[in-house]
Amino acid sequence: MYPTKYHKAASIDDAVAALNAGEDAKLLAGGQTLIAAMKQHLAAPSDLIDVRAIDGMSGVSADGDTLVIGAATTHAEVAGNADVQRLCPALAALAGGIGDPAVRYAGTIGGSIANNDPSADYPAGLLALGATIVTNTREIAADDFFEGLFTTALEDGEIITSVRVNAPKRAAYIKFRQPASLFALVGVFVADGAGGVRVAVTGAGEDGVFRHAGLEEALSADWASSAADSVSVDSDGLLSDIHGSAAYRANLIKVLTKRAVEAS
Amino acid sequence: MTNIKMTVNGKSVSGEVPDETLLSEFLRENLRLTGTHVGCDTSQCGACVVHVNGKALKACTTLAASLEGAEVTTIEGLANGGELHPMQQAFNDNHGLQCGFCTPGMIMTSVDMVNRYKAEGKELTEEAIRDELEGNICRCTGYHNIVKSVEDAAAKM
Ligand SMILES: Cc1cc2nc3c(=O)[nH]c(=O)nc-3n(C[C@H](O)[C@H](O)[C@H](O)COP(=O)(O)OP(=O)(O)OC[C@H]3O[C@@H](n4cnc5c(N)ncnc54)[C@H](O)[C@@H]3O)c2cc1C
Ligand code: FES
Ligand code: FES
């Protein structure tokens, strides 16, 4: 790896100051994306500002039907948390299916959504659940947060502090794994909650995670796997690579939606 | 540079290392604990898995500088004097290794897996073992004997 300077931030203010002071400083959480990228010389930040020790950055709390998940909460903690399991078991299952056990012990929800990998799992979950992303300066609706491939609404120097999720009436996530990377070849999160029925798809869109209007409409009318049968899923704008063509992914979106509704 | 202090296999150790030093490099190059292997550049093979504060982590994807005060256990710290850990013994008894390159990571991952399932009171089925070993790649054994080794050890741990 190229040389870098490590800084363990003691507070949000400390992290902001360190970010501004560094020439090309970056936040560090679990490192499961950033350190992996640095090893391959795909990233070379001058400074790494570790957010994990900041007070209040990790852990889950429940207030009525609302879950507040600290940005530095690991995938393993979300998967194993009793409140998440009770209020949104689909999200606990999603977290428990990310990568492998060592990745889940280190990787965090904040790092995952800040990175917004087009095949990552959390973006689909948070978009379908209509989550709110809380930063040190504002609150951002998931609909406005995930902007495109590895692109989010975060400004330079903005730090995610937590994610807020309201318990849905019913929800499920089904992921078709790309077995070498463990990421989603396609993943579909269906949710029926206060914001109506929402269907979010990861692993398939050329611009990253997206909602599917046709499937949402069909499932709003009838929450049954057969409701998806009459929906046509267009392969325009879908990814095509050695793992699957756009048409294959379009078909998977429908199949996984049906399975998710059955599992919900 | 950072002066780091941590506990490795029960001994307190320290060293002045560049901030970009990975835990795998610190263990292998500074402490000469070469049982922790490095099998890939992409954080995918699991050969480097060690325990940090009781959790299985990829040493190749963890900065040593972030582990001030941590408790680290490597494959060298598992045996009790001359007596192998039940997981090590089970890999030996069940022919759970061939070249042995993946073995330290397999064993550290498996010890964490068995401990976690026991703590949560969950049944460790063959399917669960295979799923839990998702992040550990073996080029030799075809995995069957590794799964048998873990089942064997789980009954004895
Ligand atoms: C072998 C392997 C398999 C994986 N499989 C999957 C999978 O199946 N599904 C999946 O979704 N992911 C998978 N991942 C990725 C994993 O989930 C990562 O944990 C995640 O993408 C990044 O989280 P992190 O905490 O490690 O972030 P880091 O790597 O530390 O940081 C990632 C990015 O987020 C930024 N960042 C971190 N915290 C914050 C914050 N609080 N505010 C703003 N920006 C922040 C960093 O600056 C950096 O740009 C896998 C990774 C590996 C190595
Ligand atoms: S060397 Fe750490 S995962 Fe391959
Ligand atoms: S025994 Fe050779 S890689 Fe597993």
Automatic annotation (TrEMBL), chain A:
Keyword Nucleotidyltransferase applies: no
Alphabetical UniProt keywords: FAD, Flavoprotein, Oxidoreductase
GO molecular function (one): FAD binding
Tagged with keyword Secreted: no
SUPFAM superfamilies cross-referenced by the UniProt entry: CO dehydrogenase flavoprotein C-terminal domain-like, FAD-binding/transporter-associated domain-like
Span of domain FAD-binding PCMH-type: 1-170
InterPro entries: CO_DH_flav_C (IPR005107), CO_DH_flav_C_dom_sf (IPR036683), Diverse_Substr_Oxidored (IPR051312), FAD-bd_PCMH (IPR016166), FAD-bd_PCMH-like_sf (IPR036318), FAD-bd_PCMH_sub1 (IPR016167), FAD-bd_PCMH_sub2 (IPR016169), Mopterin_DH_FAD-bd (IPR002346)
PANTHER family, sorted: XANTHINE DEHYDROGENASE SUBUNIT C-RELATED
Protein name: Xanthine dehydrogenase family protein subunit M
High-level lineage: Bacteria, Pseudomonadati, Pseudomonadota, Alphaproteobacteria, Rhodobacterales
Automatic annotation (TrEMBL), chain B:
Keyword Oxidoreductase: yes
Keyword Plastid (UniProt): no
InterPro entries per record: 2Fe-2S-bd, 2Fe-2S-bd_dom_sf, 2Fe-2S_ferredoxin-like_sf, 2Fe-2S_ferredoxin-type, Aldehyde_Oxdr_Iron-Sulfur, Beta-grasp_dom_sf
Alphabetized UniProt keyword annotations: 2Fe-2S, Iron, Iron-sulfur, Metal-binding, Oxidoreductase
Domain 2Fe-2S ferredoxin-type: 2-78
Entry's Gene Ontology molecular function annotations: 2 iron, 2 sulfur cluster binding; metal ion binding; oxidoreductase activity, acting on the aldehyde or oxo group of donors
Protein name from the UniProt record: (2Fe-2S)-binding protein
Protein species of origin: Halocynthiibacter halioticoli
